[in-house]
Specification:
By secondary structure, this protein is an alpha/beta fold. It contains seven helices and nine strands; from the N terminus they run βαβααβαβαβββαββα. α5 (87-95) runs parallel beside α6 (125-136). The radius of gyration is 16 Å and the shape is globular.
């Protein structure tokens, strides 16, 4: 049985919070980065590989290949953390059949036309469409920057916002009381 401990969206991919907080906190011994662009960039991969502790195996490959690895692996001793740069890649993993029940939104940078869900998570139309499908697939989505912070449920993050910004994606009844 594969052990995916955490699937996280973080557009910075591998950085200090991952190395110093997340990996030790969840006791991950394997870090998978499904990213089509990074899979083809030997220089950037080498930089990331040099930052990873020796106790952690790093796998950087295409989204499709990482999905295959996750679906074929049956070593229950492996504790995996999966980091995707974009919500659409988390959705691609889910569509490929990768079983995960929780998705952590850690950092999605601001851009024109995005909506702030927290100080580190900003979502635009494409992200909202991906989130809708991920939620419909039964995945619990939360926002959490570092492991010692309390996670905030996705719908709690939407609650203070004007419903006109999300009603096309999530019905009001989804924002449970």
């Amino acid at each position: 049985m594969m052990s995916i401990i955490l699937v996280r969206v973080d557009d910075r991919l591998i950085h200090g919070q991952i190395l110093q907080a997340w990996l030790p906190s969840i006791k991950a011994n394997e870090l998978l980065v499904p990213n089509d662009t990074l899979a083809a960039d030997e220089t950037q991969r080498a930089i990331f590989e040099s930052a990873i502790p020796r106790s952690t195996r790093l796998v950087i490959d295409t989204v499709e290949r990482i999905a295959e690895i996750l679906l074929q692996s049956h070593d229950g001793r492996v504790r995996r953390m999966v980091i995707v740069e974009h919500l659409r890649d988390a959705l691609r993993l889910k569509r490929a059949g990768v079983p995960f029940q929780r998705l952590n939104l850690g950092n999605i940078r601001s851009a024109e036309g995005t909506l702030s869900l927290s100080r580190t998570v900003f979502v635009g139309r494409e992200c909202l469409q991906s989130l809708r499908e991920i939620v419909r697939a039964g995945v619990n989505v939360d926002l959490q920057t570092v492991p010692f912070e309390k996670p905030v449920d996705l719908f709690d993050a939407f609650r203070p916002l004007d419903p006109s910004v999300y009603r096309d994606f999530f019905p009001a009844e989804a924002l449970r009381p």
